[in-house]
Amino acid sequence: MKNKDFSPGKKDRIKIARSIFEGIIVITVLTLIIKTLFTFSVYKPYSSSAISKESNDVKNGFIAVSYFGVDRTGDETLISTEALEKQIKALKDNGYVTITQQDILDYYKNGKKLPDKALFLLFEDGRRDTAIFSQKILEQYNYKATMLTYADKFEKNDPKFLMPKDLLNLKDSSFWELGTNGYRLEYINVFDRYSNFLGRLDSVEFSKAAPTIKRDYNHYLMDYIRDENGIPIETREEMNKRINSDYEALTKIYNNELGYVPQLYVLMHSNTGKFGTNDKVSEVNGKWIKDLFSINFNREGYSLNLPNSSIYDLTRIQPQAYWSTNHLLMRTWDDTKKDTQFVIGDADKARDFQQIRGQAEFVDDKIILTSLPKDKGLIKLANSKPVKDVKISTMLNGNIIGSQSIYLRSNEDTSNSICIQLVNNVVNVIENSNGTKTNLYSLALGDKNKEEYDIKESGSKKVDITLIDNKLTLTIDDKKIVEDLKVSNENKGDIFLESAWGNYGYSQRNIADDVYDGIFKNFKVTSINNEVLYDSSLKGLEAIKYNVKNSFNKLVNWFIKNL
Fold this sequence. Notes:
By secondary structure, this protein is of the alpha+beta class. It has twelve helices and 29 strands. It has two domains: 33-183 and 251-326, Glycoside hydrolase/deacetylase (TIM Barrel, Alpha-Beta Barrel), CATH 3.20.20.370; 344-536, Jelly Rolls (Sandwich). Strands 16, 17, 19, 24, 25, 26, 28 and 29 form an eight-stranded antiparallel beta sheet that branches. 34% of the residues are buried.
């Protein structure tokens, strides 16, 4: 037996090496955090070369894009920094340059020409994390934005929201201007989905009750305060006094804390057609808005503002946290009809498919297929010969409201095909014969007692299909739901993927959207002899890089949240 002498020197060297390695990791992470959180650049306004001399640019107008907020990893409301960076990059790559509040004033008051692709960028609700995580993206792409705040947050000193000192620092950074959402975010005349009257709720109370609330509520400045029968519990004079007091408090707080009242206002909520859901209330709001502010965004759902728009009735589009980059580009393209360069992601993977309608992006192990507005997206697997017998496996990760379909044994226009469709949480097996559709099988998935799904609700269904001769077997989430279903089409054919907008669906925030993202994750096609014909899953070095990147991001996220 060898004599293993204790070696203090060797043990110390191991400790030193471990300490150096740990130190390198900490320094690397801290360097990344510093780069993420601190400003080192100065905004440069767009140059005159961005304005075309050949066309009448006054008619071009500008698009306005407004985000609810930003979080490093994102959630169902706040967009992730990765998604925001991709969207901002895509807008930049499409030639969009940011304009300022003064540009808007000059455009409407003096007929100033704007850049061919002018963008006005906003971030709402004044969250601290929004400023932290969007700042570096604005710097990277030389974009300027307006940060909106609620004045009452200053009084409450809520650490989740930016305080006056923070706002002044943002303004000094040159990448930000300031605007306001008003004095408070509060709700009135609230009912839950069971018709129970909840009355008046502040933002925290509303957030807690949100899962039980549908659309039956209003914002504080939009209407009379009413009882459970819809009868006003305040006189017109009391309503006037209540609304006046909000604008008076707003004026006092901003003047005291910032030295001025921001000239840009975003009235909550949008799309009333005026300045409130009640004419008398609208009159009071309208007077204050025109006395206090120079610009008001009053509408949502459409991005383009033109010369004939009122400067007090401007419109913006609010990208949702679940939108793909192409989803935003599709919406702005539909509004402006200007040439748009969509993103394709991995170009090598994109070559395996033929784009037919809409736009596909290939990201990691996902195929994100964005539909045309009120229409569909369609791609054809091009790297494989027509096949008859086949196995398909994939995760369908698009939102529940909308349609994701896989066509098998299809001709060029899918008029002869076998289609497996997941639409609004219902799975269908459809046989198309010379354009005539026959529904061979249908099953509603999920909670049968649920009345409706919100358009933001994500879906995730594992789908396995086996098609041999005249029999089809379908498995959902590892549960066989139909076996040896008889089909008539026994011809060889191509494989298509489709996403389709179904309807506007339900949205608690009344968000209207006519574009849909179908998401096909780990899409795999094999022959009955288990020969892999196509596989989008990550493999080898690609999978290692993906896992390392995810692990590193989780480490950075932990440091940021716990520092």
